[in-house]
Amino acid sequence: MHNSLLPHTSPQEAPAAIASESELEALLAEPSPHALAALQTLESDLLILGVGGKMGPTLARMAAQALSAIQSPFRVIAVARFSQPALRAKLEAWGVKTIACDLLDRTALAALPDSRNVIFMAGQKFGTTGAPSQTWAMNTYMPALVAERFIAARIVVFSTGNVYPLTPVVQGGSVERDAPEPVGEYANSCLGRERIFEHFSLTQGLRCAIMRLNYAIDLRYGVILDIALKVKNNQPVDLSMGAANVIWQGDANAQALALLNHCSSPPFVLNVTGPETVSVRRVAERFGDIFGVPARLTGSEAPTALLNNAAQAQRRFGYPRVSLHQIIEWTAAWVNAGGTMLNKPTHFEARDGRF
Description:
Layout: H1 21-28, H2 33-39, E1 46-49, H3 56-69, E2 76-80, H4 85-93, E3 97-100, H5 106-110, E4 117-120, H6 132-149, E5 154-160, E6 167-168, H7 185-204, E7 207-213, E8 216-217, H8 223-232, E9 237-238, E10 243-244, E11 247-248, H9 249-258, E12 268-272, E13 278-279, H10 280-291, E14 297-298, E15 304-305, H11 311-317, H12 324-336
Parallel strand pairs: 1-2, 1-4, 2-3, 4-5, 5-7, 7-12, 8-11, 9-14
Antiparallel strand pairs: 6-15, 10-13
């Protein structure tokens, strides 16, 4: 793992800035060679469960574009409650079939079309502190229902690096063989999700891959945007969680699709994030330079942080296509231009696991 802020130069073909949300979403949906190769192996339609979150729409679009590019006979079917009709219309315009379904409803789940290829993205993080039972239902009970329903499928399971403990920054992050030690109720429920899929894998042969992700970002949300906005708005940047990992959402989605080829029993576990241990202080100072304002820093870096080591993913899939340097430059331009934002702070600085 790199311990520098900007170890890679930007690709020459990358635009200096991203001008619109439509341009951003198109960029996020570009499939990688590894994603294309995995989708060549489909033997059924691809079912994406829980598509309504921050990553799901562009993952579905990426998969649809890839299937079209390889002239596959199969479709992408995206499933969510679809409380926002506009999202459903957008997905349909991208060539994705949509089905409205409450995945906690056994009858509705049973009515979904059969598939031997599933991406499981459903879950709950924010609001855990106020409604822990709902979080546990979403993160542990729902996986049991899905595993039962699609026991013959390959399932890529979205999980999180939060299942690991805080580790010394100098160690470069947790690796897959490290024992989980989740901090807080949300992180414990996420380990519960993993254990449920592991149970069905070990007892009934379910093939799955568990993707421990932190943190996927694009220009509308994420750790880098959180820091940029604080600096731009002259708000203090808390240094207590002094380091983090990030990965461009398009790269994370491409690796999720590529993981279809790595589903196994027992489950295959993979950390997914960028190669850098990102210094919160250095990123804040960089934004201060770009915006022409001093970064207001508060507190001091603890010796530990929540960090993933994704060396195994990089050996398999290569380095992310979008570098940290490029993300910072794009984010600054996006903030300066008043680009669309989701207004969903990550709370990456929380050290007690409370979300």
